[in-house]
Amino acid sequence: MDSTGNETESQLSQSNRSAPATISSLSFKTLDSLKEAVMRLDCPLKRMANNTVFSDGPPSADIMVIGEAPGQEEDMQGVPFVGQSGKLLDNMLRAIGFMRKDVYISNVVFWRPPGNRTPTVDEVSFCLPYVDAHIELVNPKGLLLLGGVAIKALLRNAESIARARGTVHTYRGISAVATYHPAFLLRSPAQKQSVFRDLLLLKKTIQTLS
Ligand code: URA
Predict the structure, then answer these.
(1) CATH of domain 9-209
(2) Mapping DSSP to helix (H, G, I), strand (E, B) and coil, where does residue 187 land?
(3) CA 54 distance to own-chain centroid
(4) For 47-105, what is each residue's pLDDT tens digit?
(5) N or C: which end of the chain has fewer CB within 10 A?
């Protein structure tokens, strides 16, 4: 433990390669060291996946997007949001004047659940300390949380997407806007207007911080 009570990187590399993440807080000095630790993790999901999907985009971005878990295409390429949902995410961002390269993208789970099923509570809990550390290191101006899994994981007491969306939350001091996942929008295009409003809210929020 360091002086803040966090497990240090060296302790982590010695002791935490395959342990479930029961520790609530991890501390890393750099994104590279966090990524290395994530790449060294071992869990059943990882053993079934082709790739660990860590992130895409510039860590200096104002907005960090957090989705659910990699799908088939993401698992093949090792990059988040490159399949159908990713294309819709790119369009959603374009609608508010952002290019994909302007945002930093990750997920609450680093490996594809078989058949694209929803990750279990245990799978999310296993990744969560690393996701928390990830957000802390990127320290964006605003977080965009896509879908119920990301919302429940990071806004620990959020009840549903419908209730969580439309307002600005705070995650560890960072403004966070929750909205529907692009995969849901592909099935329910009528919700595109709501998502557009949520994205504008996020844009306005980070502009007021500039
Ligand atoms: N859906 C997600 O939540 N994340 C991805 O990376 C791809 C699809």
Answers:
(1) 3.40.470.10
(2) helix
(3) 9
(4) 999 999 999 999 999 999 999 999 999 999 999 999 999 999 999 999 999 999 999 99
(5) C
**Residues in contact with ligand 1 (CB, 6 Å cut-off):** 67-71, 74, 80-81, 83, 85, 107, 183
pLDDT tens profile 177-209:
999 999 999 999 999 999 999 999 999 999 998
Residue 77 is which amino acid? Q
Residue of 56, 74, 108 to mutate, ligand 1, most atoms within 8 A of C-beta: 74
113 in Cβ contact with 123 (< 8 Å): yes
Q: What pLDDT is stored for residue 146 in this prediction?
A: 98
Give the whole-angstrom CA distance, residue 36 versus residue 38: 5
DSSP string computed for 48-99: H-S-----BS-TT-SEEEEES---HHHHHHT-SS-SHHHHHHHHHHHHTT--
User: What is the pTM assigned to this prediction?
Assistant: 0.89
The domain segmentation of the chain, as residue ranges, is: 9-209
